[in-house]
Amino acid sequence: MIQDFLLHNIYNSRNISNRIDKEMRTTKTWRNIFVMCAALLSLASCSSDDEEVRQEYQPAHRSAIFNGVKLVLTDEDGNNLGGQTEMFSTLRIYGNLSKQYVLPERLTQDGITYIKFNADLPDERYINYNKDKHFGTGTSTMTITVDGKTAHLTFAFETIDNSNREQIYGGNAIHIKGAKLGNKAIANEENGDMVVVLIVDEDRLSLSDEVPIPEKPQQPA
User: What's this model's pTM, rounded to 2 decimal places?
Assistant: First the structure.
């Protein structure tokens, strides 16, 4: 009787010990899983942060920057619409690289109303240089919305580095060489700000290569 009792207790003790050992192994397994998950989440977070840093916009700054744009809005007959307050109030200009809206201003020169703004500079990482990096080209796109119509206007830039050459200007510069909308492209005919004429049609914005026409002065009543 006593022997059976002792054997029963020993058997129970072994069962309890086995259960405790099994629970400890299970707890340890889950602990390892949690540690691995935390490590993976940490790596994913770091990877995401690194990707964000890699994708951050790096404008191609130079000692001389010429990225000014003088926009002219016209109707199909060539009438300047930039002076109309209602039309101007619908204008939105967004830099696709900077991911920021720009604040345009109106100015009148030689009887023409312009809408002045600065285009985004190209991203330095995507400038296409020649072999000695003396010359490079790049682009940036500005999204222009007016009167409910949208156009994605792409500007072509040229960068020149004279810092290591015996030239009269020295230093380095970047400037707009032209603009393109759809299949139509125009060249920058000015040394400074580029003049861009957009025609506001009934259903779209289109690029014009016409020279803007000075507005006729209003006759006194």
Answer: 0.72
